[in-house]
Each structure stands twice: as structure tokens, then as C-alpha cells.
């Protein structure tokens, strides 16, 4: 383990476009569906990902274990 701590991290994720739910995640009830009519522009996707690199302020979803006053 001590040798692994010096290694870089890699994050992988999967995103589903065109759906809205009551909980803002995949476990909620579907409330809206919007078809994605054209292919995504790879440059715009790369720019969006780059904007999430480094320190960012996250807004927790409405159903979240947010620590309040403690």
C-alpha cells in the first residue's frame, strides 16, 4: 500500500444524457426525458471535463447527507 500512494489517480465514470429524475440521480423517479438528437462535440465534452479539474465548489443534490452545524 505504501508504494501505491505515490501513484497517480484515474477516475472513470459513465453519464446518461437526456433524463431528469426526482432525486437528481439514477435512483429517482423519471420526470422528464429529452432525446439527444445529434452527436456530442468531442471538443465541448473535453472542455466540460477540464472545467471539473482542480478545486471546484460542488452543490449537493437535494437528497444528500450534508453535514450541517457539526
TrEMBL record:
GO MF entry, a single one: RNA binding
Protein EC: 5.4.99.25
One protein family per Pfam: TruB_N
Domain Pseudouridine synthase II N-terminal: 2-70
Record-level GO BP terms: mRNA pseudouridine synthesis; tRNA modification
Gene3D superfamilies per UniProt: Pseudouridine synthase
Keywords: Isomerase, tRNA processing
Main enzyme class: isomerase
InterPro entries xref list: PsdUridine_synth_cat_dom_sf, PsdUridine_synth_N, tRNA_psdUridine_synth_TruB
Keyword set includes Heme: no
Keyword Isomerase listed: yes
PANTHER family per the UniProt record, alphabetical: PSEUDOURIDYLATE SYNTHASE TRUB1, TRNA-PSEUDOURIDINE SYNTHASE
Protein name as annotated: tRNA pseudouridine(55) synthase
Amino acid at each position: 500500500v505504501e508504494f501505491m500512494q505515490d501513484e497517480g489517480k484515474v477516475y472513470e465514470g459513465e453519464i446518461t444524457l437526456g433524463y431528469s429524475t426526482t432525486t437528481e440521480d439514477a435512483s429517482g423517479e423519471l420526470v422528464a426525458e429529452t432525446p439527444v438528437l445529434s452527436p456530442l462535440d468531442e471538443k465541448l465534452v473535453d472542455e466540460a471535463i477540464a472545467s471539473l479539474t482542480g478545486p471546484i465548489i460542488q452543490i449537493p443534490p437535494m437528497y444528500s447527507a450534508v453535514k450541517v452545524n457539526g
